[in-house]
Amino acid sequence: PSLAKLFASHVFLTLAKLQRKCLTRLLVCEHPFAAHRRRFLHDGTPPDWWICRFCRDVRCVEDEGHVLFECVNDGLIKARTRAFRDMLTIHPPLEYVLPKRTDVWNLVRFFARHPRLLARFADFVHTTFKMCDEVPMIIITSQNDLA
Q1: Which residues does 88 contact at the CB level (< 8 Å), separation at least 6?
Q2: In the Cβ-directed half-sphere of 12, how many Cα atoms lie within 13 Å?
Q3: Residues 6+ apart with CB under 8 A from 103
Q4: Which whole-number Å values give the CA distances from 97 to 64, 91, 93, 106, 109, in the listed order?
Q5: Per-residue pLDDT of the chain (147 residues; tens, 9 = 90+)
Q6: What phi and psi values does residue 103 have, to the nearest 5 degrees?
Q7: Total-model pTM
Q8: Where are the domains of the chain?
Q9: Contact 87, 120 (CB under 8 A)
Q10: DSSP 3-state assignment of 142?
Protein backbone atom coordinates (compact mmCIF):
# COMPACT_ATOMS: atom_id res chain seq x y z
CA PRO A 1 0.00 0.00 0.00
CA SER A 2 1.01 3.62 -0.32
CA LEU A 3 2.13 5.28 2.90
CA ALA A 4 -1.19 7.10 3.19
CA LYS A 5 -3.13 3.83 2.86
CA LEU A 6 -0.81 2.03 5.27
CA PHE A 7 -0.98 4.78 7.91
CA ALA A 8 -4.79 4.86 7.67
CA SER A 9 -5.19 1.08 7.70
CA HIS A 10 -6.84 -0.77 10.55
CA VAL A 11 -3.72 -2.92 10.96
CA PHE A 12 -1.47 0.10 11.42
CA LEU A 13 -3.87 1.91 13.72
CA THR A 14 -4.17 -1.09 16.04
CA LEU A 15 -0.42 -1.01 16.76
CA ALA A 16 0.82 0.53 19.98
CA LYS A 17 1.94 4.16 19.69
CA LEU A 18 5.64 3.27 19.94
CA GLN A 19 5.27 0.61 17.23
CA ARG A 20 3.51 3.08 14.90
CA LYS A 21 6.16 5.70 15.56
CA CYS A 22 9.05 3.32 14.79
CA LEU A 23 7.49 2.04 11.58
CA THR A 24 6.65 5.56 10.49
CA ARG A 25 10.22 6.72 11.10
CA LEU A 26 11.56 3.75 9.13
CA LEU A 27 9.21 4.19 6.19
CA VAL A 28 9.61 7.95 5.83
CA CYS A 29 13.41 7.67 6.20
CA GLU A 30 13.62 9.48 9.53
CA HIS A 31 15.52 6.63 11.12
CA PRO A 32 18.86 6.77 12.96
CA PHE A 33 20.81 4.73 10.40
CA ALA A 34 23.80 6.44 8.78
CA ALA A 35 22.26 6.31 5.30
CA HIS A 36 19.72 8.85 6.51
CA ARG A 37 21.72 10.86 9.04
CA ARG A 38 24.76 11.41 6.81
CA ARG A 39 22.64 12.90 4.02
CA PHE A 40 22.12 16.00 6.14
CA LEU A 41 25.76 16.62 7.03
CA HIS A 42 26.43 17.94 3.51
CA ASP A 43 30.12 17.18 3.95
CA GLY A 44 30.55 15.71 0.48
CA THR A 45 31.27 12.19 1.67
CA PRO A 46 30.13 9.51 -0.75
CA PRO A 47 27.51 6.99 0.42
CA ASP A 48 30.01 4.12 0.34
CA TRP A 49 31.82 5.87 3.23
CA TRP A 50 28.72 5.61 5.43
CA ILE A 51 29.97 2.37 6.93
CA CYS A 52 27.99 0.38 9.46
CA ARG A 53 28.65 1.31 13.08
CA PHE A 54 27.82 -2.23 14.17
CA CYS A 55 29.95 -4.49 11.99
CA ARG A 56 32.46 -1.75 11.03
CA ASP A 57 32.98 -3.44 7.66
CA VAL A 58 34.11 -0.86 5.10
CA ARG A 59 32.16 -2.75 2.43
CA CYS A 60 28.85 -2.31 4.28
CA VAL A 61 26.79 0.87 4.04
CA GLU A 62 24.62 1.37 7.12
CA ASP A 63 21.21 1.50 5.50
CA GLU A 64 17.84 -0.05 6.32
CA GLY A 65 18.44 -3.31 4.48
CA HIS A 66 21.88 -3.84 5.94
CA VAL A 67 20.99 -3.13 9.57
CA LEU A 68 17.67 -4.96 9.58
CA PHE A 69 18.55 -8.01 7.48
CA GLU A 70 22.25 -8.41 6.77
CA CYS A 71 24.56 -7.03 9.47
CA VAL A 72 26.65 -9.66 11.23
CA ASN A 73 26.94 -7.78 14.53
CA ASP A 74 26.19 -10.19 17.40
CA GLY A 75 23.57 -7.93 19.00
CA LEU A 76 21.74 -7.41 15.72
CA ILE A 77 21.89 -11.12 14.91
CA LYS A 78 20.37 -11.97 18.31
CA ALA A 79 17.62 -9.36 17.95
CA ARG A 80 16.88 -10.42 14.36
CA THR A 81 16.85 -14.12 15.23
CA ARG A 82 14.53 -13.56 18.19
CA ALA A 83 12.15 -11.39 16.15
CA PHE A 84 11.97 -13.69 13.16
CA ARG A 85 11.65 -16.79 15.36
CA ASP A 86 8.67 -15.13 17.07
CA MET A 87 7.19 -14.22 13.69
CA LEU A 88 7.60 -17.80 12.43
CA THR A 89 5.72 -19.02 15.51
CA ILE A 90 2.91 -16.59 14.70
CA HIS A 91 2.86 -17.37 10.96
CA PRO A 92 4.83 -20.53 9.95
CA PRO A 93 4.50 -19.94 6.15
CA LEU A 94 6.72 -16.91 6.70
CA GLU A 95 9.65 -19.34 6.45
CA TYR A 96 9.07 -19.42 2.69
CA VAL A 97 8.49 -15.69 2.35
CA LEU A 98 11.46 -14.24 4.25
CA PRO A 99 14.29 -15.46 2.01
CA LYS A 100 12.61 -13.82 -0.98
CA ARG A 101 11.87 -10.46 0.66
CA THR A 102 14.90 -8.68 2.04
CA ASP A 103 13.59 -5.32 0.89
CA VAL A 104 12.05 -3.34 3.77
CA TRP A 105 9.11 -2.15 1.66
CA ASN A 106 8.25 -5.65 0.44
CA LEU A 107 8.32 -7.03 3.98
CA VAL A 108 6.18 -4.22 5.36
CA ARG A 109 3.67 -4.78 2.54
CA PHE A 110 3.54 -8.45 3.49
CA PHE A 111 3.36 -7.74 7.23
CA ALA A 112 0.59 -5.17 6.70
CA ARG A 113 -1.70 -8.10 5.89
CA HIS A 114 -0.78 -9.79 9.19
CA PRO A 115 -1.23 -7.49 12.21
CA ARG A 116 0.72 -9.62 14.68
CA LEU A 117 3.67 -9.87 12.30
CA LEU A 118 3.65 -6.12 11.74
CA ALA A 119 3.64 -5.52 15.50
CA ARG A 120 6.57 -7.90 16.06
CA PHE A 121 8.50 -6.34 13.17
CA ALA A 122 7.88 -2.88 14.66
CA ASP A 123 9.30 -4.12 17.98
CA PHE A 124 12.40 -5.33 16.14
CA VAL A 125 12.79 -1.97 14.38
CA HIS A 126 12.50 -0.25 17.77
CA THR A 127 15.27 -2.49 19.13
CA THR A 128 17.58 -1.52 16.25
CA PHE A 129 16.82 2.17 16.83
CA LYS A 130 17.75 1.80 20.52
CA MET A 131 20.98 0.09 19.51
CA CYS A 132 21.81 3.10 17.32
CA ASP A 133 21.46 5.31 20.40
CA GLU A 134 24.03 3.16 22.22
CA VAL A 135 26.67 2.91 19.47
CA PRO A 136 28.04 6.11 17.94
CA MET A 137 27.89 6.55 14.18
CA ILE A 138 31.18 6.23 12.32
CA ILE A 139 32.15 9.46 10.58
CA ILE A 140 34.55 8.99 7.66
CA THR A 141 35.60 12.22 5.98
CA SER A 142 38.72 11.20 4.05
CA GLN A 143 40.48 8.28 2.41
CA ASN A 144 42.85 8.22 5.41
CA ASP A 145 39.91 7.71 7.78
CA LEU A 146 38.60 4.93 5.56
CA ALA A 147 41.95 3.15 5.56
Answers
A1: 94, 95
A2: 19
A3: 65
A4: 19, 10, 7, 10, 12
A5: 577 887 888 888 899 999 999 999 998 888 999 988 887 776 778 888 899 999 999 999 999 989 998 999 999 999 999 999 999 999 998 888 776 656 777 787 788 788 899 999 999 999 999 999 999 999 887 788 777
A6: -85, 130
A7: 0.87
A8: 3-140
A9: yes
A10: coil
